[in-house]
Amino acid sequence: MLEKAGELAAGLCGFGEGFVKDFLGQTELIWYYGLARAKSRTVRAVFKMSLLIRNGQIVTPTDSYRADIFCQDETIARIGANLSAPPGAEVIDASGQFVFPGFIDPHVHIYLPFMGTYAKDTYPTASKAALCGGTTTLIEMICPSRTDEPLAAFELWKSKAEGQSACDFTFHMGVTRYDPLAESQLREIVKAGIASFKIFLAYKGALGVDDAELFQTLKLAKSLGVITTAHCENADAVALRQKELLAAGKTGPEWHEPSRPESVEALGVHHLMTFAAIHDAHCYIVHTSCEPAVRQALAARMRGNKVWIETLIQYLTLDKTAAELPDFSGSKFVMSPPLRDKRNQPFLWNNVANGLISTVATDHAPFDFKGQKEMGRGDFTKIPNGIPSLEDRVNVLYTTGVKTGKIDLHRFVDAASTQAAKIFGLYPRKGDIHVGADGDLVIFDPNEEAVISAKTHHMNIDYNPFEGMPLHGRVKSVAVRGQIAVKDGKFVGDPARGRLLKREPTHF
Ligand code: URP
Ligand code: ZN
Ligand code: ZN
User: Fold this and answer.
1) Confidence check: pLDDT of 24 > 60
2) Residue 262 Cα to chain centre, angstroms
3) Probe ligand 1: pick from 115, 259, 287, max atoms within 8 Å of CB?
4) pLDDT in tens, 149-167
5) Mind spelling out the 3-state secondary structure of 367-381?
6) ω before 337 within 30° of 0 (cis)?
7) Of 212, 347, 363, 186, nearest in space to 287 by CA
8) Ligand 1: residue whose CA is nearest its atom 8
9) Are 487 and 127 spatial neighbours (Cβ–Cβ below 8 Å)?
10) Partners of 491 in the beta sheet?
């Protein structure tokens, strides 16, 4: 809601138009809603922005119907046929287009000190890229080093985002150490509205936790009703295998995948599930890349574990042969867990389609080819791990999933928005279209053709892993809490509109 203090120039009451002269003497025409309370001649005029999206095909996980959507200020106020808007409302014609709830990316890295360097995006670049790609809310991983105090890390990550994000955001709190000080600070962070933890079973000696820390973290998470998101790979097996390959002269990016085989990821999932079962702790397995890892999670679910599964757009569409590209170009496709053999993709798609894999995220972690990925020439273990995709996830999922018939439109919305909202405590405010929800809306043109390129993307990175991929259908316009942020593919919004979303624990 916008508020302005000023001198009353015309009676403000109810819903309409009036003039307010502010204290600098400027008179401004405003649209207002509600009563302006007069105290002598000074008023506080409360007025609201409004947005009307006409004639779109609204698609949610459960419904598809043609209607208008009217947003008053930040929320959806009405949905129906032939809605009228007050004068001054922004009106968008969405005839022939889909209107989706704002998409949510539940696994993003923006500020990321990692492997001797920093990920390239900042909130100003990443949030605009997210919005241009239809993502209106992102959840970033706070990744402190093992010597950092959790509260200091929380404040640091917040300082990189607050006032600098065009889209809404929240965090998963990385737990990279466990001691009495860390425990008490984690309790405070949860009270401050962060209802999820992140742990790494990989990255031994850096971000990874040992078994005692894993045990304590899951116990604390259960007692606080917090869900623990986890990167699952057996760190010892990876470290030993890396040494073995390097000693044999196998140093190129194509050896990254064999250094962290599918079985090692599956073992990581089994390990996590064993510890989680002890406390009945709720877990979300990030970036599952292959059939054996997903099968371990599903087997645990059948045993009674409360577990949700994420895969990434990269694993659904790219495979390990990308890391074999010549002239070290394969390094652009190094991430962990690695891109896998293509035979995994039908399995992943089937389980996205049937909902056993809940979400499709990005694990956006951008490192330039020049100067950053190149740090690993001659030693693949030094290539900064990560493949950017924050801007492209929604468009690529539509083209490769919906257009090909692998998933239907409802599951598309569910996997890229609604499930993340439900799992991470943002629902029903986010992740759906209904009266009272935030006016986060994506107008999507199913007939627009485009080609992905680093030359036109908004992410701050010198390559795009989907370079040259044709898109059949594309995000066209985007609203964040009732205000248009992207129009016809261009960012036109408020660069500081994004808000930190506080979340209540729900995983008891
Ligand atoms: O390769 C990856 N995934 N880089 C980002 C850090 C992580 O493991 O999520
Ligand atoms: Zn990870
Ligand atoms: Zn990650």
Assistant:
1) no
2) 25
3) 287
4) 999 999 999 999 999 999 9
5) CCCCCCHHHHCCCHH
6) yes
7) 363
8) 336
9) no
10) 486
